[in-house]
Design goal:
With 193 residues, the chain is of the alpha+beta class. 33% of the residues lie in helices and 29% in strands. It has six helices and seven strands. A seven-stranded mixed sheet has the order 1-2-3-4-5-7-6. Strand 6 and strand 7 form a beta hairpin. The chain is globular and about 40 Å long. The two termini are 15 Å apart.
């Protein structure tokens, strides 16, 4: 049975393992090997511990955990970063402040296709609605096959960009949800206790 709930600092080690392992699986061939091989569980655990301890009000982290397996997925989210908002449309930089952003969503490869990502997104969207956010978006690498997950759960492509990261030009697609209440209803509500 997978449980969904707010992360505590103790979860940072499990979050780090999901983060590094999922990056290495999802981005192999998309990002330079040096980037993927240079990642460490210890560094990610420190970073996620800091986020949970110091930013939980503005960047909540929700985890999916299973008995005897620990953390199998997580998401983090918050108020949209103005520099990441699409340049036009309902998510544009000049639109009202109640636009949320999914910063991260990762589920261990062997736990994908089991509804865990869907439940994490539902929990994040429900938390955003509670904070008064009306809409949300996220950016994903165009060549990441997991991007189709966002289409399956109601995300609509709203923008594209090319970003230079780690010495590579990477194409990204922005998926948006213009009505978070409707998105929560569609995905099914999920408690984050």
């Amino acid at each position: 049975m997978t449980t969904i709930g707010l992360a505590t600092e103790r979860a940072s080690v499990g979050i780090a393992k999901v983060y590094v392992d999922t990056w290495r699986s999802a981005y192999a061939g998309l990002l330079p090997n040096r980037v993927l091989l240079g990642m460490s569980y210890e560094r990610q655990a420190r970073e996620w511990s800091w986020v949970i301890k110091n930013r939980s009000e503005v960047q909540p982290v929700i985890v999916a955990a299973e008995p005897n397996r620990g953390i199998v997925g997580f998401t983090s989210f918050g108020l949209s970063r103005v520099t990441d908002r699409p340049p036009a449309g309902p998510f544009a930089s000049d639109s009202e402040a109640n636009v949320g952003e999914i910063y991260t969503l990762y589920v261990r490869p062997e736990h994908q296709e089991r509804g865990i990502g869907r439940r994490l997104m539902a929990a994040a969207f429900a938390a955003m609605v509670e904070k008064g956010y009306g809409r949300s978006f996220l950016w994903v690498l165009r060549d990441n096959p997991a991007r189709y997950f966002y289409e399956r759960i109601g995300g609509r492509p709203v923008a594209q960009r090319r970003e230079r990261l780690w010495g590579c030009s990477l194409d990204e697609i922005c998926y948006g949800w213009t009505d978070l209440t409707q998105a929560v209803d569609r995905l099914g509500s999920c408690e984050t206790g």
